[in-house]
Amino acid sequence: MSNAQSRQVTVKGEHGLHLVPCSLIAKTSNVYACEIEIRTGNKLAKAKNIFDLMGLGVGKGAVLTLSATGDDAEVALAALEELFNSGFEPHARPEIAP
Amino acid sequence: MIIKSGIAVSPGIAIGPALLFGVRSFRIPQRFVAVDAVDGEVTRLRLAIQTVAKSIEQSQESASRQLGSEYAAIFGAHLMMVQDPKLLGEVETLIRTKCFSPEFACSRVFRNYARSLQNLGNAYMAERAADVLDLEKRVMNALLGESRRDLSNLSHPAVILAHNLTPSETASLDRKNVLGFATEGGGRTSHTAILAGALELPAVVGVGSFLSDVSVDDVVIIDGSNGKVVIDPDEATLAGYRFVLSQQKSESHRLASLNSGAATTLDGVRIQVMGNIEFPQEVQHCIERGADGIGLYRTEFLYIGADHSPSEEEQFNSYRAVVAACNDRPVVIRTLDLGADKIPGGDSIFHTNAENPALGLRSIRLSLRYISLFKTQLRGILRAGCGGRVKIMFPLITSLLELRQAKLILRDVMDDLAEERIAFSRDVQVGMMVEVPAAALQARIFAKEVDFFSIGTNDLIQYALAVDRSDPNVAALYSSADPAILTLLKMTVDAAREQGIPVTICGQMSSDLRFIPLLIGLGVRTLSVTPFAIAEVRDLIRHLSVSQAEEIAEHALTLDLARDVDNYLRGELQRIYPEKQ
Asked: Within an 8 Å CB–CB cutoff, is residue B191 touching chain A?
């Protein structure tokens, strides 16, 4: 298709793309009609599939390439980028000073 | 006797018969089905998946109500996994092309998925294999028509041993009969570990393979303080642990027997002892130990691990749960005390370059920057305050302008709520944390503009002594007994007394028995402590007179070295409260 788009994002959050972030990426991606892929190194995942995403096994700080093909590719990528920028927090209990 | 070591995640000792939970032993009734039965079998599979999805949705709802949205998000992910089109496609293909029974097909596919997660070489993802196997169990149970065996209703007290407990299983633990638990998997930050701490159940996780060494009803000891699991202990070991356990019990009984009635000093001065909490369910622990209320409700956990900033409704529900459980006792809710990097949807630009997050955009500074985030929280708090005694506390206040700005926004929010005709608590008291040295130095000015002070000693010490306690190179320089800290405390308490406003101490200092005579001697009348310490702090207060405490404070203030203050307070504590020694 003609309107293929891509951009790069960095993974934040202690545990990288763990369970909840993967589910959020898939959930967000499924809102859009376009095909979305996430690539890191030689691994590729379909962004609409939670197991595919988990299979990337991506840790903190990894740089991922998001690419989308379809009419709403631009908006879909913008939404995903925002999701990545929001940071994915682990279910950890940090030291919090009273 | 076999002794295994794991990660100690929740202190205490549990001794009891083993209950092996979730050891995978599904008997698959039939592996293959007839060709003409295939359509019917696919329908049976789809119905089973629907049943499981529905029950996950229910878990999600109850988790969000009882534990907060950070736990509910996990169930959201489970829901997505069990409805994953690719996974279900594989199962259906096996049924249609190979005439596998749905049970056999599911078992194959789910285990393949779990195995591939385990093989990723990523420790966190490997732990998620347990989530996939939990789903397999659920689907199997739905297919086999058995009601899920759960831990919410045990026939007798037992120690739970499992490969892994899933969030849904931990959340439903029978609090009366589960003595403690140990799991083969799991880490310090696993959901189970966090929850065990909040439930105060002795727990050890990450033990490694040990279930095959245990038979049902073997006696097992869980030493949650030292991270040990003892299977089938010999007489001497058992006697040793029984002795420690009986000591723990008699100590907690002694304290429990003193729980009724107020904590009053020998000369008749009433001291309020409140609890510091993070989760609504901790309120019960505080009240059982005789707390006068909640002196610090940290709201950060609504945000951490959440996939989005918690909505007003989610916040309202959590706050409301705490207020209701407190049953007319006061609840001090602290507004968000986190760095920008921890906020879902927070602006990453501001924190990515921060080399010194303790001095960066965090806490009230963050709330004042993201006013809509702040307003959402204030609305939740004000609404939850209806019919209860809620107080709002702003953290990390440094300058008077910040305080005024925060109060102005609070006023705005009240006006909005009034305009929308939404019920809220109008006469809520407003206080501030004194945890920046600047605030302690200017306490006389601040005292005129708030209803109460609460001294957060952890941050106050870190900022005043310029020490990061988590850095082992300088941790020894961190001391609550430093004369500079005593001076800052005195300035704050004196300023509050002049203005006639109350002061609470809510840092770790107030949970440390040594400092309690000093704090009371300085004029503090409210202590907010970790739930575990409530009973003991109350007991100590009953051994103390204010005049004696004042002498101790006066003398401590004359000492020049932290070491001298420390030794002096230790000696005085021994004299006043020999029970502890």
From this structure: yes
